[in-house]
TrEMBL record:
SMART domains in UniProt: HAMP, HATPase_c, HisKA
Protein name per the record: histidine kinase
UniProt membrane topology term: Multi-pass membrane protein
Alphabetical keyword list: ATP-binding, Cell membrane, Kinase, Membrane, Nucleotide-binding, Phosphoprotein, Transferase, Transmembrane, Transmembrane helix, Two-component regulatory system
């Protein structure tokens, strides 16, 4: 705008000067008669030149406004892949770049919403499938008992035990789903307190070893510390240990050996559970901590109740919620899951 006014001013002076030179060639009386004409001509020339220059200088700006308007309309209709061409380095160019950033943000948000929707559908599908299996078995056994379709007392006891086993499996699936939902929604509050990792591990092993022996597995523990003080939720850390131990028991190859090591350094305590299992690919290894993921070869190999594929996902999230981490080192059928937790104090 300022440039337009300046150019109009100087061009007007040039035209008016030219008219003035024509007037200078007339008599003095004629000059006086030309003064009103000179004023009107000056205003008219200035206005015409100003409008012409304003149109020429703003033509591109107005055209670019149309481009911005069209781009905004396209983006508002849901085409977040569209990008407004940036051809200027002024405020309009900055506006175009901001519009493109907005489109990128909306595109990323759309992808997240789509992934969330797919995740929700996968969750519903996975839960429905995993809950249906034990529930169907329970109904079958209870129906046999209701119709008294058993040969003797031994078969009666077997039906009852199988139904009870399926009920326990169903309860664990529901518990895992409940914990996982609370973790992912951020609604789970941990009851952290000072605890001794050695005592907690010994308590979990005391309950686990008889189960392992029932399935002909040998548990070997090596505890290299006398005391390890940590700030954790003991119940949830026990859940992590139980998930890892049961996972090792389910998928160990025969003969079944499960090694448990508890060590520490100056800052952290490390609990490592190792076992030999079926070989898996790198792609399968990368997915072991994904929810509902179960490899087919491991699933067929296990003679124990199959879970929903939530155990490792829950264990990792519980570890991270307590400032720790859960990692896996896999090598040719050798699995080593390590739980690392920050240490308050450790005395050997």
């Amino acid at each position: 705008m300022v440039l337009t006014i300046v150019l109009s001013y100087f061009l007007s002076l040039y035209v008016i000067g030219f008219i003035g030179r024509l007037i200078d060639s007339t008599t003095a009386q004629g000059k006086l008669e030309y003064i009103p004409f000179l004023v009107v001509a000056s205003v008219a020339v200035f206005t015409m030149i100003f409008l012409l220059l304003f149109y020429l200088l703003t033509k591109r700006i107005i055209k670019y406004f149309s481009v911005l308007s069209e781009g905004l309309d396209i983006i508002s209709k849901g085409n977040f892949e569209y990008r407004v061409p940036v051809v200027r380095e002024d405020e309009l160019g900055a506006l175009a770049r901001n519009m493109n950033k907005m489109a990128e943000h909306l595109a990323a948000q759309k992808i997240k919403e789509k992934e969330a929707e797919e995740s929700k559908m996968n969750l519903i599908t996975g839960v429905s499938h995993d809950l249906r299996t034990p529930l169907t078995s329970m109904i079958g056994y209870l129906d046999l008992l209701r119709q008294r379709s058993y040969l003797d007392e031994n078969e009666y006891d077997r039906f009852v035990n199988n139904a009870f086993s399926k009920a326990q499996q169903l309860k664990k699936l529901i518990d895992d789903l409940f914990i996982y939902t609370r973790l992912t929604s951020g609604n789970m509050t941990l009851a952290k307190q000072r605890a001794d990792m050695r005592e907690l591990l010994e308590q979990v092993l005391f309950e686990f070893v008889p189960i392992a022996e029932e399935h002909h597995a040998v548990v070997q523990s090596q505890i290299g510390i006398q005391k390890a003080a940590v700030h954790i939720d003991p119940e949830q850390v026990a859940r992590i240990l139980d998930n890892l131990l049961m996972n090792a028991l389910k998928y160990s190859t025969t003969p079944k050996f499960i090694d448990v090591h508890l060590t520490s350094n100056q800052t952290s305590v490390y609990l490592t559970i190792t076992n030999e299992g079926e070989r898996i690919t790198k792609e399968q290894e990368a997915k072991l901590f994904d929810r509902f993921y179960k490899t087919e070869n491991m699933e067929h190999h296990s003679h124990l109740q199959a879970g929903a594929g939530l155990g490792l996902a829950i264990a990792r999230q519980l570890a991270e919620r307590q400032d720790g981490r859960l990692t896996l080192e896999y090598d040719n059928g050798h699995y080593a899951f390590t739980l690392e937790l920050p240490l308050l104090e450790c005395r050997e």
